[in-house]
Amino acid sequence: MTGRFEALIWTDCREGQGLRGTPGLQFQARSAGADRRAEAVVQRNLLYEPPPRWMGQRRPVSDYPASFAHVWDGLLATAAGVYLGRESVGGREGNQLTHAIVTDDPAAYGLVRPAQMFGAPFWTAEPARSTQCPALLPGWHPGSFGAAEAQTFVRGTPDGDELLGALLSTLRPPSGQRDRRVLFVASEAAEVMRWITAVTLLIPQREALRIGFKVFTLNPAFAPHRILAVHPDWGGAETTLDNDQGYAVFDLVRHDWSRVTHTRAARQWTELFLAEDPMDVVDAVEVAAASGLDDDGGTTVALAAILGRCPPPERVAGLVGWLRQGPPQLVKRYGGGIVDLLVAAAPQWPVEVVRSLDEVSRATTSWHRAAQVRLALIEAELREATVAGVVRPERAAPLGGEWTPAEHERSLAAITREMRLAQPPLFEALLRLCGRFGLRPAPADLQPGLDRFVLDWADNPDHTYQIASWACAEEIQRLLRHELGERLAHEPDRAYELGDSWWDVLLREPMRLDEPLDAAVVEAALRHLPARQQIDLVEQCLRTALAATRPVAMVNRTASVIWTHRAVNRAEAHLLAHLLPRDTPLDPRVFALLHQEVVAHRSQREYVDAALVVIAHGLWAPQVDTLRAIAGHRALAYVFDELADPTFDGSTLLRALDDVPPHLVWAQMPDLCEAIARAPVVAVALTVLTHVHVQQLTEPCSRKLCGELMNNSNPTHVALAFVLLNIGSQSAVMASMIQARVRADLERQVRNVVSRCSEKRFREITTHIDGLGPMWSALWKTFTRSHRRGLVRRLRQRRRR
């Protein structure tokens, strides 16, 4: 849409005819919005220049060519001029008329280049009737020489493509190269204006508005315009092809021009202009300029958007990037067509480009178009997977719509065809590819490739497949289970091996332990899983059994699988008590290993607790020896607890010691010695030493205390060591159990502590020994009288010195 211009007319006036009111050359008229600034721009840049030589020769007015000029000098102004001959007053040669239009708004030109206004119907060659002339109103039309006419003109001119390319290369030189002005030599303005029109049609319109031109001028050196034209017969201009004075000279009379190196862009646009629809090429020029990219990038966008030309492979990534980050209005207008163009040629592009196109299309195009891009991406990634075995791990973003039946069939066709023929490694990669795009091919459509894959997987349990990424993972695992179940049925002895090989793959929920394969898998899982996950698995299996049609039988089968090779531990015992009704009849063989743990002399306390829980819940009726062993373990556990307690019940402790069998003491002797050495009350330790049914306990306890006293003088350790040194007062047999070397070391360490410790530490030791009774206090006083006095004597001797 074209806009409004103010108008001015310059010519020779009679008195009172012009704006000055005096006779002579002046602005004869102007529109209401034109001002002095507009007058200055026109007078400075656009007036017709009559040639003095021709005026002197009184050449006919019809010989004089028209003039046409344009400038951006603070304002945009375009003008057409004619020679009128004699002045209105006086009869001298030199009268001329210049009709100029002026605006400060580039949008007033619409998409018209100024050169296209040559020959427009709104120009006048006559003065206005008054000093006010009409403005040029919106909706005006340019001259008749447009893009189609320019293409025909250049095509019809010998070497027209070279001349146009040279002009464009001069007006848009490579960056870093100095600008040259263009100088035409011509006899007619029309021919020059055709070339200016043709070349500026290949320059973005806003940029073309800034390119000033003047046709004709007498002295190019004094004209500021980028493009100038001189008449060969007017004289005054000394610039020629042989002496270009820095201009790019285009002599249209001789059809020759200065040597100009064509830029790649100029050659490309020239070839397009002459080969394609010229209006499309002009639109492409505008899109390239508005794309926000450099020349090459903008041209790539324009050719794809307007001319439907695919970019070369090295530029396609940039084009996809433009779809993501280009000007929103342009992307909205042309993005869909570009996407269609790229999708049609998708097999040519690197897969990363198609992935980027998929991302862009989901954000900027319709569902149907995004679906077409997704199909192209699936095909591209299928090619990548079949060639390199590479599949991206992440799931593809959803499209936000549903496939049509045709699209769904196309999405699966190529993949299922490959999977039918694929060897196992490729088959697995294609399973991941289907999973990535949410495709679920029918298993029947994958044969024989599916059977080949399952058999290979069953033969090679060490294959580390990413099952969570597969499509149809449940169905394939079902087939694997069937195959392994068949193998186990033929070779039952392989249960342990199969379980160990497959437990992490086949562990599922729910597990039915009446199935041999599930049983082997669960047994293996319980060997390998961390404790927390073991208890979760046990709970899941028991709950599944309780939900069966015959729960008691299923619970017994489940329990026999879980605890055939492992003893029930404390957590599992509590779980059994929580899930199973009281007095549930369980096969005693379920607790066979728990029985072995309990009657073992080194049994852990956890298993004793487990036995107590299941017995109390009526799940196990153990044998007498089991109950006896439990009683002994409980008594010993009570002894351990009392040894660690600062307060103790002597009578209860004595009864517990009576219930601890000697073989259990022997089995737990290291732990018992540790507990005796750490007892906070020496009286408890003495009670255990003298009443336990193993008199040999004094020897390891003595060795333990020797080690402790080497690094500290803990009062309880010293007191207990003194007790062991004098245990003969209680039992000669117990005293005899202590080796002479150990006894000597222990006595030396006690003596050293007594002779060197502080008074505070000495009182603490004495307090512990006094708690054992008068006999022990007397023995202590006798022992310390000599050894403690030695310390006092040495201290006195040091003070005397």
Give the distance, in angstroms, between the N- and C-terminal Cα atoms: 122 Å
- Radius of gyration over all CA atoms, rounded: 54 Å
* Adjacency order of strands in the biggest sheet: 2-1-5-4-3-7-8-6-9-10
With helices defined by DSSP (H or I, 4 residues minimum), what is the helix count?
A: 35
What percent strand? Answer: 5-15%
**Structural class of the secondary structure composition?**
alpha/beta
| Unreliable segments of 5+ consecutive residues | 791-801
Shape annotation? elongated
Please give the share of residues in helix.
55-70%
Residue-averaged pLDDT: 89
What is the number of beta strands?
10
Q: Could you describe the largest sheet, including whether it forms a barrel?
A: 10 strands, mixed
